[in-house]
Specification:
about 110 residues, single chain, alpha+beta, about 30% helix, 4 helices
Length: about 110
C-alpha cells in the first residue's frame, strides 16, 4: 500500500486519541536520560555512602579500587570503607568519574 512505502528506516506510526498539540508537547519535553561522559560538567554531587554496596559483585573490587574508591571485601561482600564523592556539582568529569557514575547507575 502507499502507507507502507513511507514507513521505512527509522520511521514509525503513532496512533493516539490525544490532540496533536499534546503529542507535540510531549515529544518536545522528552529527553532520554544518559550517563555523563568524560569532560562533561557534573550537574549534581554524587556521594556513595559508607557500607555494603548492594548488587555489586565481589569481582568488581579491583575495578572499583583502580577507579579510586575506598572498598574492601568482607566475607565476599564489597564494602565502601568511607563516604566517597564520585563527583561534585560544577566540576568537570574525568574518565574514572564517568565510569563510576555508570557502574552505580547514576545518570546526570
Amino acid at each position: 500500500s502507499e502507507l507502507s512505502a513511507d514507513v521505512v528506516g527509522l520511521r514509525g506510526l503513532l496512533f493516539t486519541n490525544r490532540s496533536e498539540a499534546e503529542v507535540l508537547d510531549f515529544f518536545a519535553g522528552y529527553a532520554k536520560t544518559d550517563y555523563a561522559r568524560s569532560g562533561a560538567t557534573a550537574t549534581a554531587t554524587v556521594t556513595i555512602p559508607t557500607g555494603e554496596l548492594e548488587g555489586m559483585s565481589h569481582t568488581m573490587t579491583p575495578t572499583l579500587t583502580k577507579l579510586g574508591m575506598p572498598v574492601k571485601l568482607v566475607r565476599g561482600v564489597v564494602v565502601n570503607t568511607s563516604d566517597y564523592d564520585i563527583c561534585r556539582e560544577g566540576e568537570t568529569l574525568n574518565p574514572d568519574q564517568a565510569r563510576l557514575l555508570k557502574l552505580f547507575e547514576k545518570p546526570l
